[in-house]
Amino acid sequence: MNTPQISLYEPGTVLTVGSHHAKIIKYLTSGGFAQVYSAEISPPDAYSSANKACLKRVIVPDKQGLNTLRAEVDAMKLLKNNKHVVSYIDSHAAKSVNGVAYEVFVLMEYCERGGLIDFMNTRLKNRLQESEVLEIMSQTVQGIVAMHALQPPLIHRDIKIENVLISHEGLYKVCDFGSVSGVIRPPKNPQEFNYVQHDILTNTTAQYRSPEMIDLYRGLPIDEKSDIWALGVFLYKICYYTTPFEKSGETAILHARYQYPSFPQYSDRLKNLIRLMLMEAPSQRPNICQVLEEVSRLQNRSCPIRNFYLLRAMNQNAHLASESTSMAYIPAQQHISQHSFQNIKGMTNIVPLTNIKTAPNLDSVSKFMNNNDRIEPMSQLHTQKLQTDPNILNPLTKTKSVPLSDDFTSLYYKELHPFQKSHTFKSVESFQSPQRKYIPSSPPPINSNNYDRVSTINRPNNYVDSETQTLDSMATPNLKPSPITTNKTTSFSKESTVAENVTGGSIVRSLSSKLKRVITGESRSSSPTKSRQNTGDSIRSAFGILRHGFTGSSINNNRSTSFDNNNGNNNGNSVSRRLTSSSSNPPSSNFSSDTKRQEELDKKRKLEHRRSMPPSILSDFDQHERNNSRTGSRDYYRSHSPVKKSQTMPTTTARPTLKSSNSDINVNQDKKESIQRRVHNLLNNSEDSLGYKSASGYGKYTDTEAEKSNRQSSVRITPISEERFNNYHTSNAMSDHTSSNDKPKSRPPRPPPKPLHLRTKIPNTRCSSHLQSRRPPEERISSEATETIVDVNVDDLEADFRKRFPSKV
Ligand SMILES: Nc1ncnc2c1ncn2[C@@H]1O[C@H](COP(=O)(O)OP(=O)(O)OP(=O)(O)O)[C@@H](O)[C@H]1O
């Protein structure tokens, strides 16, 4: 790639960045295409009052690079002022004189104490104490909480030691939002497959990649649980100064196989937390709130946040209750049996929470989260049920609930609350108009004396291993004179319109524009915003992969350091098992309790959808899409896939609405009866404390057979051809149609078959992998807990679920 070369700014150089003047104090370091400086700013940051900031200067050669940076800036804006996220201050973009490249300036909070990696390197001999590990983990997790709490959630996708910085007060803060995305649903055609594959390769770090990222054939979404996996690797690394899969590579990642070093010694509970975060099945990993709850428990502290997943589930529950309440008062309700009516009456005591929506927004959630009293209006009956239902309150009953800390409050009120009034942000641009206040400063002459690389000097020999360090030489700033000057500025508001609502969704939309360009071939330039390890040039690479994908060429990815698969080391499994099994009271069930609750609700919704839809080969993927519609993944793919419209639109348009017309009395009656049954079942089920074993997570089923297949699968980071992709699905498609045709007309529609991507059929090509051949197929190696938890019959679960939560249609 043609990397624009730029000189360094001299100390004392004054720039205008948005509405701030920034006077360069000193050059700090360089990222991939970024120069990083400390600067004095005026006016001081409104939030922190600090007059010292970090200035990141990035050269991007084209608009696509600009868009990638815009996504990064948008993410920073969304997370601004969270105590554990490097806070955004201002930004600015300018066009170079030659009109080819752009220069982007981002002002952000300055983390004076450098990176976590620097701190770890000060402790090579005296490794971190468990209390220190927990503190780092707690604060980092709080930064990620801010992302996952958004609706739709943002996935960081590049959580690693190098992306945590330390502020002057000693707070740990998450940085580098250049890889952020929304939830990515499983690809459903070769183009999407190749795109997602390459996007993952270029925007994630090999050692932190989750199994579902490496093996896209699993058909699992890339969602918050992928971040949880990366956090598990992160936790392991702050404990042991190496990643769990450092030597064994992707094979070990795919089966969550690793060992715990014997030094340093950490408690079984801490190791068990790592084990849970590194569960092979995403649905078995804790969510971010549960991670923080457990870390807080280990710290013997109150958890600083409340479980928003749980609160959403409660909100959903209340919504169901209010729905049934309203139904109780319409005339057609008269036929309801006395028994049902009593149940309805019981439920009518529930005071509906304000503005409850089917998909609760952060407004309602934040009310929960910021004022405990908001929970009290719920009826005593309902509250009692929630308290006695281990599937709902288990995490909170074990952790003392406390009001949110100030920073979390500010997260919801100062940052997220405006999203509810999204119009406020309509005119906001990702970058301030550079024409407004930009004071061009001619590039200073090169002064190598300014070269003050804080992170590379005096590095001990046994420096903590990381990609950044191994590639450090590549980060050396280019000291050649810059061909780029910044004396011509251009407003980018027209050529790069920001999504109207500055929400997680806008980021997702912004990112989704990448795919559109890939498909339409709008432009083929590269995006330079990421470095050799963390490159964001997924647009260019996506073109590449599309080109190569069909020609069979291999992907050339400069960041994703391939693991040496020959180093596959299975020996650690026994050690791993021994250690994990020795942990006291593995809290899998604790972690999965409110997840289960969510899963139940998701499942219920899913079944409702399923029952209302004709089974088709596309239905499962479409179902995913609907499940993920809140997350913006629908935008991410549906709006940009070249095949989606012809394939999915008919399904979408043919989809019956769940709400039937009031004029249709029969339907209404069915519906009301169904609601009565559902409420009745809900009440019954909330009273029993059965440990409902759910194999689902985020609307996905975990199939034991699929698990077996997955274990037999191997790394498949190769472009997939159309033919191969189609072959993979043909047999399943046939069976889908057969099953739908066989269906007796008089019977209610059966739920569509199990999602295609979770079926066990694996194309023969998969078995030809060199990795596969090294391990006999019958050998099933996995972490112990995975086997225990995943070993459930999904059909039974579905049947049980249907029985407990009958569909209203
Ligand atoms: N807010 C900050 N305060 C202090 N130092 C910072 C800050 N932001 C970044 N840095 C330093 O600059 C380095 C590069 O920053 P960053 O990772 O954001 O750039 P990048 O171009 O995205 O790099 P990468 O190649 O890692 O993706 C960081 O590793 C860190 O040492």
Describe this structure in words.
This is non-specific serine/threonine protein kinase. One of its GO terms (biological process) is regulation of clathrin-dependent endocytosis. It catalyses: L-seryl-[protein] + ATP = O-phospho-L-seryl-[protein] + ADP + H(+); L-threonyl-[protein] + ATP = O-phospho-L-threonyl-[protein] + ADP + H(+). It is an enzyme of class 2 (transferase). This protein has about 800 residues and is of the alpha+beta class. Among the domains are: about 1-110, Orthogonal Bundle (Transferase(Phosphotransferase), domain 1), CATH 1.10.510.10; about 110-315, Transferase(Phosphotransferase) domain 1 (Transferase(Phosphotransferase), domain 1, Orthogonal Bundle). About 45% of the residues lie in helices and about 5% in strands. The chain has 31 helices and ten strands. Strands 1-2-3-4-6-5 form a six-stranded antiparallel sheet. Strands 7-8 form a two-stranded antiparallel sheet. A two-stranded antiparallel ribbon has the order 9-10. Helix 8 runs antiparallel to helix 9, helix 10 packs across helix 12 and helix 14 (about 390-400) packs antiparallel against helix 21. The chain is globular. Mean pLDDT is about 60; it is low at about 330-505, about 510-590, about 610-670, about 680-720, about 730-750 and about 755-795. Bound molecules: adenosine-5'-triphosphate.
